[in-house]
Protein: YpeB-like protein with protease inhibitory function
Amino acid sequence: MKTLKTLAILAVLSPATAMAESSVSASDLDKFRAAMTATNCMVNNEQQAGQVERDTGFSEAKLEAIVVELRKLGEIENMNDQGGIRLISGDCAK
Structure:
């Protein structure tokens, strides 16, 4: 599964690159947030990445766009050098 590698690359992607997919709706963001909450607010391995992908049903491009958007909103932070991410808003706020 390439999802975790994709999420790792997101740390260096520009918003313009990720927005190649159509714009992200508020509903898309909410669905992603719910999926992240179900993985204890983090994606740090292939299993968690796969769960978020399955729970949302989104394409890799859509997931990339969502992560970039949530980074801009200050809702996603890097967990480690291997590319893990953590949601830090809503039920996942510190």
The longest helix spans residues 26-38. Confidence is low (pLDDT under 50) at residues 11-21. Helices lie at 3-9, 15-18, 26-38, 46-56, 60-72. The beta strands are 42-43, 76-78, 85-87.
